[in-house]
Specification:
Blueprint lengths: L3 E6 L6 H10 L3 E6 L1 H9 L10 E4 L2 E4 L1 H12 L6 H26 L3 H28 L14 H14 L14 H12 L1 H9 L6
Parallel strand pairs: 1-2
Antiparallel strand pairs: 1-3, 3-4
This protein binds glutathione.
Glutathione (GSH) binds next to helix 3.
């Protein structure tokens, strides 16, 4: 029986970085995806911290908060960075991806068209600044033909890949050519997708809009 149960909805969303870590590690996991009706019943049991998902159950212990779960798994399976400095760099990329996700969520839930347009303009600027910084971070790491932190794939690359899935093609904002101006990041994304364990997961996972 798999040791980890990742519990979320039928979406990549906030669970995908953890699923990517487990996949990269070649660790089997139970991929539980509630419908919204199932979630209402489950939520009422009170067993999910803060009444939110994702959660992960491991050896009977329930963990919550998507980034805490991803970081825990990264530490367990060697994707969190080898030194405290590397770990901090991994966190920088994760938090940067969270900022991009938050901006996108804000746009998604904005009902007023004019405000939505304004938020989108601001967001596009933020994405450009962010990608320029990440391109530099990658390049500064031994020329940028490897990974964002250290000399192997880490949660930083997996978080970036997961967020770019949204930026490149999502019902909220779709910019399929976004990475054309950031050649090192574009190549990184392709490198991550081509890792055999990741490629197998991308092929096997349920295809969802979000
Ligand atoms: N900070 C939390 C946010 C979790 C969150 O917003 N979860 C949403 C789905 S992405 C949720 O559970 N919504 C259903 C609900 O609140 O009942 C995390 O990163 O895990």
């Amino acid at each position: 029986m798999p040791k980890h149960r990742i519990i979320y909805f039928n979406a990549r969303g906030r669970a995908e970085p953890s699923r990517l870590v487990l996949s990269a590690a070649g660790v089997e996991f139970e991929d539980i995806r509630f419908t919204s009706e199932e979630w209402e019943t489950e939520k009422a049991t009170g067993k999910y911290h803060f009444g939110q998902l994702p959660c992960m159950e491991t050896d009977g212990v329930m963990l919550s908060q998507s980034r805490a779960i991803a970081r825990y798994l990264a530490n367990e399976y060697g994707f969190a960075g080898r030194t405290n400095l590397e770990k901090a760099k991994v966190d920088i990329v994760m938090d940067t991806c969270e900022d991009l996700l938050q901006g996108m969520i804000k746009i998604h839930f904005e009902k007023d068209d004019a405000k939505k347009a304004e938020l989108t303009t601001q967001y596009d600027k933020k994405v450009a600044t962010t990608l320029a910084s990440l391109e530099k971070m990658l390049t500064d790491n031994n020329g940028g033909d490897g990974f964002l932190v250290g000399d192997g794939v880490s949660l930083a690359d997996l978080s970036f890949y997961s967020q770019m899935e949204y930026n490149l093609s999502s019902p909220i904002l779709s910019s399929p050519n976004l990475l054309d101006s950031y050649p090192k990041l574009k190549a990184l994304n392709a490198r991550v997708a081509a890792l055999p364990n990741i490629a197998a997961w991308l092929e096997k996972r349920p295809k969802t809009e979000f």
